[in-house]
Write a structure and sequence with these properties.
This protein has 210 residues and is α/β, with parallel strands linked by helices. It has 2 domains: 2-132, Rossmann fold (3-Layer(aba) Sandwich); 139-206, Arc Repressor Mutant, subunit A (Orthogonal Bundle), CATH 1.10.10. It contains 11 helices and 6 strands.
């Protein structure tokens, strides 16, 4: 089962999200939070696999909450705000996925599964502009870190740039999925990135070839 925590300041939205999540056989909601502080506290206490996080919430916004939870769980941002600034801030904070609230129920459920597997996901509606924005703002330190990657890690990095999942990377490079996941983690560490989504965008902007 995928354990999920829902963080949104609107009670009606939380109720709807709970119904959507629990309509899936492999997802269970173990907590709800109405603000960012509560989301952080509950996440650290309950240890969900995925937190579905709104951006604008009282006491602590979803971006700041995501940053505090980096490394503790996978965060899927679900918001009405799809501007470049919001998307970039969410991914820079370490979010594993970003969806808009007009996403249908089936897509949301599948997104939770994708994030829980350790893969990344961005709403198609914001992807093109996001890549341009990330490339414009990217710190030089991240690009410089490419020289630290081993040959195998560069192969994995290139495939992240193609949007491949861990399973797809493993199949393409003839390795176990667990090994692919380990390589992805090492790539993130060496490049100083918080999520595979950041790595995928950086790989595209860096022109890394398969």
């Amino acid at each position: 089962m995928i354990n999920v925590l829902i963080a949104d300041d609107h009670a009606a939205v939380r109720t709807g999200l709970v119904l959507i999540c629990e309509g899936a056989d492999d997802i269970t909601v173990i907590g709800e939070a109405a603000d960012g502080v509560d989301a952080v506290e509950q996440t650290l206490r309950l240890r969900p696999d995925v937190v579905v996080m709104d951006i604008r919430m009282p006491r602590l916004d979803g971006i700041s909450a995501t940053e505090r939870l980096a490394g503790s769980c996978d965060v899927l941002i679900l918001t009405t705000y799809g501007s470049n600034a919001h998307v970039f801030a969410a991914l820079a904070a370490g979010a594993a996925g970003f969806l808009l609230k007009d996403t249908d129920a089936d897509t949301l459920v599948e997104a939770i599964r994708v994030v829980a597997r350790g893969d990344g996901l961005i709403s198609p509606a914001v992807t093109r502009d996001l890549i341009k924005e990330f490339g414009r703002r990217r710190p030089r330190a991240e690009a410089a870190g490419l020289s630290l990657l081993t040959g195998r890690e560069r192969q994995v990095f290139a495939r992240l740039g193609q949007g491949m999942s861990n399973a797809a990377i493993a199949a393409d490079l003839s390795m176990a999925e667990a090994t692919a996941k380990t390589h992805v983690s090492r790539v993130l560490t060496k490049l100083g990135l918080r999520s595979r989504v950041q790595a995928a965008i950086l790989a595209q902007e860096s022109g890394i070839q398969l």
